[in-house]
C-alpha cells in the first residue's frame, strides 16, 4: 500500500513537471515568434528616417515598417511623412505581410487621393500585394481578380507610367488565371451533365477573356455542351468561330470532328 502511494506521488510529480516544462517551452516559442517592436522614443524625423533606412538595408522589414510608421505618427506634417507611409507599405510587402501593406496603401490613398506623382507606384505596389498571393486554379481566384482590378486602374489613370508596362503583363496573367478557373468549373458541370451551367461558364471565357490561352478549349467545350443539348445551330457557330480564329488549334479539329459526327446527323445530313 505504501509503495503504491509512493508510485502515485511520483507519477503526479512527474506529470506536474511535464506540464510545467511544456508551458515554459510554449511561452519561449511564443516569445520567439513575436515580432520585434519599436520602443517609443520621441526623435526628430530625420533620425527616425535614418533608423528606418538602416533596418531596410539590414532586411529587417518588420522593424523598418514600424519605424516608417513611427515617422508618420510623431511627425505627421513633416516633409518625409508622406513618403514614410509608402515606405511602410513597401516594408510590409517585402516582409510578405500583404494585408498590412494593402492597409497602409489604402490609408495613403484616402489621405492623398490627388497625389499624381506617387500614385502610380502606390497602385503598382497594391497590385503586387494581390498578385503575389495568386495560387493555382483549384483555389479561390480573388487575388487574381483584385490584382487585375488595381492594375487596370493604374493603366487607365497613368498609361505613360513606367509601372504600366509591367502592369499590362500582369493583367494578362491574372486574366488567364480567372479564365482557367471558369474552365475548371465548366468542366465540372459538364461531368455532372449540367450543360446549361457549363455553357454559362464557357461563355464568360469566350466573351470576357478571349485573349487568353483558354479560349480555344472554351469554344470546343461549348460545341460539346450544345450538341449534348441538341442545340445544333449554336454548336455550328462555335465550330465556325474556332475555324476562323484557331484553325491550326487541335481544339478546332476536335470540335469539327464532333460536329461532323453528331451535328450533321441530327440535322438529317450525312455524317
Structural summary, described in words:
This protein is mainly alpha-helical. The chain has a domain at 37-109. Helices cover 75% and strands 0% of the residues. The chain contains twelve helices and no strands.
Secondary structure: helix percent = over 70%
Order of helices and strands: HHHHHHHHHHHH
Strand content: under 5%
Number of strands: 0
Q: Nutshell version of this structure?
A:
Helix content is 75%, strand content 0%.
Task: Describe the secondary-structure layout.
Elements: H1 2-33, H2 45-57, H3 61-74, H4 81-94, H5 98-111, H6 119-131, H7 142-157, H8 164-191, H9 195-208, H10 215-229, H11 232-245, H12 250-266
Helix pairs in contact: 2-3, 3-4, 4-5, 4-6, 5-6, 6-7, 6-8, 7-8, 8-9, 8-10, 9-10, 10-11, 10-12, 11-12
Descriptive terms for the model:
271 residues; mainly alpha; 12 helices; elongated
Amino acid at each position: 500500500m505504501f509503495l503504491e502511494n509512493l508510485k502515485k506521488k511520483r507519477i503526479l510529480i512527474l506529470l506536474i513537471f511535464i506540464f510545467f516544462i511544456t508551458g515554459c517551452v510554449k511561452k519561449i516559442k511564443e516569445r520567439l515568434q513575436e515580432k520585434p517592436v519599436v520602443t517609443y522614443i520621441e526623435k526628430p524625423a530625420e533620425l527616425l528616417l535614418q533608423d528606418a533606412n538602416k533596418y531596410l538595408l539590414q532586411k529587417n522589414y518588420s522593424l523598418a515598417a514600424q519605424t516608417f510608421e513611427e515617422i508618420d505618427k510623431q511627425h505627421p506634417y513633416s516633409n518625409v511623412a508622406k513618403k514614410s507611409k509608402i515606405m511602410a507599405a513597401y516594408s510590409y510587402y517585402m516582409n510578405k505581410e500583404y494585408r498590412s501593406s494593402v492597409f497602409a496603401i489604402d490609408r495613403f490613398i484616402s489621405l492623398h487621393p490627388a497625389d499624381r506623382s506617387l500614385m502610380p507606384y502606390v497602385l503598382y505596389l497594391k497590385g503586387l500585394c494581390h498578385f503575389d498571393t495568386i495560387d493555382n486554379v483549384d483555389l479561390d481566384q480573388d487575388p487574381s481578380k483584385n490584382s487585375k482590378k488595381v492594375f487596370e486602374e493604374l493603366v487607365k489613370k497613368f498609361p505613360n507610367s513606367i509601372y504600366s508596362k509591367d502592369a499590362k503583363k500582369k493583367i494578362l496573367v491574372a486574366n488567364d488565371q480567372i479564365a482557367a478557373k471558369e474552365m475548371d468549373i465548366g468542366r465540372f458541370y459538364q461531368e455532372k451533365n449540367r450543360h446549361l451551367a457549363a455553357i454559362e461558364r464557357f461563355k464568360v471565357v469566350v466573351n470576357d477573356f478571349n485573349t487568353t490561352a483558354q479560349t480555344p478549349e472554351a469554344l470546343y467545350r461549348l460545341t460539346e455542351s450544345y450538341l449534348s443539348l441538341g442545340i445544333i445551330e449554336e454548336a455550328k457557330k462555335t465550330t465556325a468561330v474556332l475555324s476562323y480564329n484557331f484553325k491550326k488549334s487541335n481544339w478546332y479539329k476536335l470540335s469539327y470532328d464532333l460536329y461532323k459526327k453528331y451535328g450533321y446527323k441530327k440535322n438529317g445530313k450525312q455524317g
